[in-house]
Fold this sequence. Notes:
By secondary structure, this protein is mostly helical.
Amino acid sequence: IRSDGYREILGVKMGDTESFAIWEETFRWLKGRGLKGVMFVISDDHGGLTEAVARHFQGASWQRCQVHLMRNILGQCARRHRADVAAAAQRVLQAPDMDDARRRLAEFVERFAKTAPKSVECLEAGFEDAMAVMSLPEKYRKRLRTTNMQERLNEEVRRRERVIRIFPNDESALRLIGALLAEQNEVWQERKYLDMDEFNEWAAARKNPPEDSKVIA
Length: 217
């Protein structure tokens, strides 16, 4: 998301893993093409990705995707407790401010300490990273708390890719996916995604040029 509020697909690269080496190469490639001023990065908690983000976008805030965290939390408890755990964890993640979020977290810990201890551990470990979005003005929190925008794009890529099933080589995959992304990028230019005025003020307060600010999901 650019500082003018429009979304832009920065590029596409092939990789056979989500290792640090692949992400490090990708971010180096993007920076070589002119990417700068990244202020806020949203992703899941994949170790290789977060390590590369920390190395290449020093000073940027990192938001752990709350949807991915919720899946991790629910995967750590018995099926019979999942509905209650999900509802309580959602209350924590959707708190209106950090004081209330910490209060709700304490209630979650007390309630599920015995019935879902691993879920408690998971939420406690991911809480601060999942709540980084609370430092932003309130109007941006709903859209920047998850990677939903990116996941929807991924689903569209996979829908087209499943028709082909097997690509003969990397070049053929890049032609199809590249054409799809170019088309989607044009669609995105027809409508502003976010009013970035307050975000740019937030960026300026962090002593970074607002005109160069970026959000990566």
